């Protein structure tokens, strides 16, 4: 069930799908606090893992936000590996997604877990 963000925020929902050996697709949907569709994108990629695909989906969501002049957004993903790597510490995350998530500036990270609760910010980057 989709839960709207607070007023003046946007929610960027991201997801990835992967099929061995190297086929991947990512999707991004941006909605405002009223649930109105602001933008979206889907891409085919070459990725070697499910984790890399999910991390790439988060990166694509963050790249799409500025194109719609969005500066207050919540990224929502159902990938625990990507969320943990972004939220906790890159050094403890999956090595497969490190090259992707290290591109994301830590000051922009606000990732939600599946239950919709914000992960606490960490200044270990």
From TrEMBL:
It holds the Pfam family RVT_3. Gene3D superfamilies: Ribonuclease H-like superfamily/Ribonuclease H (3.30.420.10). This is Pre-mRNA-processing ATP-dependent RNA helicase PRP5-like. Signal peptide: none annotated. Keywords: ATP-binding, Helicase, Hydrolase, Nucleotide-binding. GO terms for molecular function: helicase activity; nucleic acid binding; RNA-DNA hybrid ribonuclease activity. Residues 13-86 form the RNase H type-1 domain. The keyword Nucleotide-binding applies.
């Amino acid at each position: 069930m989709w839960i709207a963000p607070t007023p003046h925020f946007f929610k960027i929902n991201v997801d990835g799908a992967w099929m061995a050996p190297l086929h991947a697709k990512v999707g991004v949907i941006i909605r405002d606090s009223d649930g109105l569709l602001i933008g979206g994108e889907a891409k085919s990629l070459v990725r070697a893992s499910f984790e890399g695909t999910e991390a790439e989906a988060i990166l694509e969501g963050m790249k799409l936000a500025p194109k719609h002049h969005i500066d207050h957004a919540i990224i929502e993903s159902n990938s625990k590996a990507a969320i943990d790597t972004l939220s906790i510490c890159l050094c403890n995350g999956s090595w497969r997604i490190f090259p992707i998530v290290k591109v994301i500036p830590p000051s922009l990270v606000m990732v939600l877990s599946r239950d919709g609760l914000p992960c606490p910010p960490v200044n270990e980057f």
